[in-house]
Design brief:
This protein is α+β, with helices and mostly antiparallel strands and 337 residues long. The chain has nine helices and 16 strands. The strands form four sheets. The chain has an eight-stranded antiparallel beta sheet. Helix 1 runs antiparallel to helix 6, helix 3 runs parallel beside helix 7 and helix 7 runs antiparallel to helix 8.
């Protein structure tokens, strides 16, 4: 008996594949960064040095880490987090851009996504230098929540500065990796490529087309495959990016309960709303990264309502009675073929 594997295809409305001009060679590079791996596939002029390209990618990734990593004690982010109350910090352009966008998502989601959640992340054992995997006391959670709150953070946009209100710990884990993908995409263009696929830790952005003239097809990670009855989904990343937030990887068990790393800033506890994963497609990976986290926290109804209002392609996977089910935003459904 032959098993038929269903597959769903999603593509942008305007899938106008360019005609490849001039001779191009395929460069495939990979490495490690931010506690995960990165990979790049790009069509480049024959004279392009793989060593020079790899060095350029490494410099870009090192710059993101040096600015936005909470795991680096000398990063710009760590300097801000350790700053005195009322201290003013001049931020590099990239850091400021990411933080400014993160705060806009926090405002739009009314705090379901909050880049100032670092104190809570550390308390739950998901921050740097803390591997404690147990449920904190309620008093400790409330104390950490008192140090959080995106409204407390003030940006001086004309000077590209941020003011430390006191005890605020910025955590850009849900947006910096997406920005890094976009930053590498900018690097590919600087090297003369208009056709590439960039990936960091499963978050991707594609431009142009593959050597055979077809789009960059990528598969959405299958959540808990054994429970799934819906089709596998592949997306044509043609001037698009995709990111998924889920509960599969960073988590711990305590007292017979499972606690995932995504925290709800509004409660101080890990999200437990039945959602297994949320995938978002957007023009930039920074947007897809932040919004997938925000939708994960907002939950099925609020998250879908947000995606519907904004016309955002989003796929929600939920667990119910031991089985998985999915819901698609209208914009995602419109992409499917």
């Amino acid at each position: 008996m032959t098993t038929v594997v269903q597959r769903r295809v999603a593509a942008p409305h305007a899938l106008n594949m360019p005609t490849l001009r001039g001779e191009r060679v395929v460069q495939r590079l990979s490495g490690e960064t931010m506690g995960t791996t990165w990979s790049v596939v790009a069509l480049l002029p024959p004279c392009t040095s793989a060593e020079a390209l790899h060095a350029s990618i490494a410099r870009r990734l090192e710059a993101v880490v040096a600015q936005m990593s909470a795991w680096e004690s000398r990063s710009e982010l760590s300097c801000f987090n350790g700053g005195l109350p009322g201290s003013t910090h001049a931020l590099p352009p990239e850091f400021f851009h990411v933080l400014d966008y993160a705060l806009s998502v926090a405002a739009e989601t009314k705090g379901a996504y909050d880049p100032t959640i670092g104190a809570l992340s550390a308390l739950w054992g998901f921050g740097p230098g803390n591997n404690l995997k147990e449920v904190p006391a309620e008093e400790a959670i409330e104390a950490a929540r008192g140090l959080c709150g995106w409204q407390r953070l003030r940006l001086l946009r004309n000077k590209r500065e941020a003011i430390q209100p006191g005890g605020t710990i910025i955590d850009l884990c849900a947006v910096a990796k997406g920005f890094a993908v976009d930053h590498l995409a900018d690097g590919m263009r600087a090297f003369g490529s208009s056709d590439f696929l960039v990936e960091i830790g499963g978050e991707l952005r594609g431009e142009g087309c593959k050597p055979d003239g077809t789009p960059w097809w990528v598969a959405i990670e299958a959540p808990r495959t054994g429970l799934s009855k819906f089709p596998d989904t592949v997306i044509a990343l043609h001037a698009l990016a995709v990111a998924t937030s889920g509960d599969q990887h960073r988590c711990f068990e305590c007292g017979g309960s499972r606690y995932a790393h995504t925290l709800d800033p509004r409660t101080g506890y890990p999200v437990r709303n039945g959602i297994v994963s949320v995938t978002v497609v957007a023009e930039t990976c920074m947007e897809a990264d932040a919004l997938s986290t925000a939708f994960y926290v907002l939950g099925e109804e609020e998250g879908l309502a947000f995606a519907r209002r904004r016309g955002i392609p989003a796929r929600f996977v939920l667990e119910e009675d031991g089985q998985l089910r999915e819901r698609l935003s209208p914009a995602f459904t419109a992409m499917t073929i």
